[in-house]
Write a structure and sequence with these properties.
The complex is a heterodimer of chains A (about 375) and B (about 180). Chain A has 13 helices and eight strands. Chain A is α+β, with helices and mostly antiparallel strands and about 375 residues long. In chain A, strand 7 (about 320-330) and strand 8 (about 335-340) form a beta hairpin. Chain B is elongated, with a radius of gyration of 24 Å. The longest helix of chain B is centred in the middle third of the chain and has 12 residues, at about 105-120. Classes of the chains: A alpha+beta (about 375), B alpha/beta (about 180).
């Protein structure tokens, strides 16, 4: 809310008070505000206030050509942009009847899992910072940077790669890329014991995250919680396994679950997913050494490219949960409607508001981060 | 069109009048309801009898030529594992529908969003206060009738930005301003 719109109001005497939390807060992945009602330092009620990162992507995409939107979609979620590209591209392919070549499918899985790794490392850093473990914050961000180097080598960009295009990917692996990526994966794996020492087994984290922001499975399903947050309540649901897309049916990986449903369980699920992502990535790298082929199907002139009329709903398991695009085409050169369903739309509003009640004010940022709530995904 | 349906779905679809379904993609059913008011009954049956406990999203599409809004309810079941997209059409005027947030709590977010962006009114919704466009006084911006560029032309003035330091810099042909 703009400062000019604040109104001074006289309220009856009370032990409760209101506290504005955000829109800038170090514990939040982007600008987002929370209006907390407190008694002492206990949250009595909490109200989420979004819109600080609203850029009108859905409207913009209706005014851009199908191919131009590739430049817009990754920007919807900063920490984990690749699933946005994949979900958009898969919806366009479904509508247009495009067949993605095999090598391109493996390359897409490669960048999807690399993106999951970067997002989870970012999460470790962010969650650590909300409980005061700043060394881990730097570790998470700097280890993520090594993967961003790989992204730069492969796609030319570090964060917004615009690598996945409808019908395939933009370029093939440069010489030596698979070896240098393997080295980075070994490095990340070697770092996990150090993360265990300083973060996952740290008494500060264990004592502050255990029992914080707890939800049971019935609550999670009721509130539409998906992804690692849902798996932390014991439900083994993962779109990669249950609705396999690309080549996920051909790789081996486990769906990681925990049962406690608190902030600590959510962090442990993500720790397990880092190991599973490394496992998937190594299988993908092996495949990419032998699978030949084109990296995209032939596309018409992108400036005169029309997609047959129809609608498609495609879903991807992003690092945060179920990411979906509902795309409607009227047969013209631009989408008629693009609806982005980000997992954080469920996690950052109703779920967060409910989980924070009864929590202490110093845990609010931790609860928000433990849900991996991403405001740009809410605002679009 | 595929003829086979998971067992609980067949019974559910038969009990709601005006339901037409077809296979849209692998494990994705497209359901169309000829009468919009039958949708809450369909959702209640899907949730109660077919295990559809997850409302993935509600999408809204504006069809100005038909003067209609299309609402699409995407539902998933953790047991059946067949995605369902249920489509209904509403007249754009008055653009009213009933809330399903009593059945599916996530509907609260999507209905608030659709109300804000398309101006559809949901009776019995949890919360329809503005969320993203808190200080927006204009028409619902996701409607096709909302012209982005026209709005900018009408509401904002072009301001030439020409500070002195920039003019000085251009005169010198570059460098650093003291």
């Amino acid at each position: 809310m703009h400062p000019d719109h604040y109104r001074h109001t006289e309220l009856p005497p009370s032990t409760e008070y209101e506290l504005y939390f955000g829109p800038n807060h170090p514990g939040i992945e982007g600008n987002y505000a929370l209006k907390a009602r407190l008694a002492g330092d206990t949250v009595v009620a909490l109200e989420a206030d979004g819109g600080y990162l609203h850029r009108g992507f859905e409207k913009l995409m209706e005014q851009r050509l199908w191919i131009q939107n590739i430049a817009l979609v990754p920007r919807i979620c900063v920490p984990d942009p690749v699933p946005m590209e994949e979900t958009y591209a898969r919806a366009v392919e479904t509508l247009g009847g495009l067949e993605v070549p095999e090598r391109a499918q493996w390359l897409r899985m490669l960048v999807l899992e690399m993106s999951r790794l970067t997002a989870h490392l970012f999460y470790f850093g962010g969650h650590a910072a909300t409980v005061g473990l700043y060394t881990n914050m730097f570790w998470g961000v700097s280890d993520r940077d090594r993967l961003l180097d790989c992204f730069e080598q492969l796609t030319g960009a570090r964060v917004y790669h615009m690598y996945i295009t409808p019908g395939g990917v933009r370029r093939d692996t440069p010489p030596g890329f698979l070896d240098s990526l393997s080295e980075v994966l070994d490095y990340v794996e070697g770092r996990l014991p150090k993360f265990d020492d300083l973060f996952f087994d740290n008494a500060v984290l264990v004592r502050r995250a255990t029992g914080t922001g707890t939800m049971d499975q019935a609550f999670a399903i009721d509130y539409g919680v998906t992804g690692p947050n849902l798996r932390a309540t014991g439900l083994a649901h993962d779109l990669r396994r249950d609705y396999p897309y690309l080549k996920y049916a051909e790789v081996e990986f486990d769906v990681i679950t925990e049962t406690a449903g608190d902030a600590y369980a959510r962090t442990l699920v993500r720790r397990g997913e880092v190991i599973e992502s490394l496992r998937i990535l190594r299988q993908v790298i092996d495949k990419l050494r032998s699978v030949p082929g084109p990296i995209r199907c032939p596309l018409p002139n992108p400036l005169a490219w029309r997609i047959p009329a129809g609608d498609a709903y495609t879903r991807t398991e992003s690092s945060k949960g179920e990411l979906a695009y509902y795309i409607v085409s009227d047969g013209s050169a631009k989408p008629w409607r693009v609806h982005v369903r980000g997992p954080s739309q469920m996690h950052a509003v109703q779920t967060l508001e409910a989980l924070c009640v009864g929590a202490r004010i110093e845990d609010v940022a931790q609860i928000m981060f433990s849900l991996d709530a991403c405001p740009p995904e809410v605002d679009r | 069109m595929s003829k086979s349906l998971p067992t609980p779905l067949e019974g559910v679809f038969r009990r709601v009048p005006g339901v037409r379904w077809r296979q849209q993609a692998e494990r994705h059913l497209r359901v169309e309801l000829s009468e919009a008011e039958n949708l809450p009954a369909l959702l209640a049956l899907l949730k109660g009898e077919a295990g559809y406990r997850h409302l993935s999203a509600i999408s809204c599409v504006d069809w100005p030529d038909a003067d209609e809004f299309e609402l699409v309810y995407h539902l998933d079941s953790y047991t059946t594992q067949v995605l369902i997209s249920a489509h209904i059409r509403l007249p754009a005027a008055p653009g009213r529908y009933v809330s399903v947030s009593g059945l599916y709590r996530p509907a609260g977010f999507f209905e608030r969003d659709i109300h804000e962006m398309f101006g559809v009114q949901f009776e019995g919704a949890l919360d329809l206060r503005p969320f993203i466009l808190t200080e927006w006084g204009g028409p619902p911006p996701m409607r096709k009738s909302f012209d982005t560029e026209g709005y900018v032309r009408d509401h904002y003035q072009w301001v030439d930005y020409g500070p002195e330091w920039l003019a000085e810099l251009e005169k010198r042909g570059g460098g650093i301003v003291e």
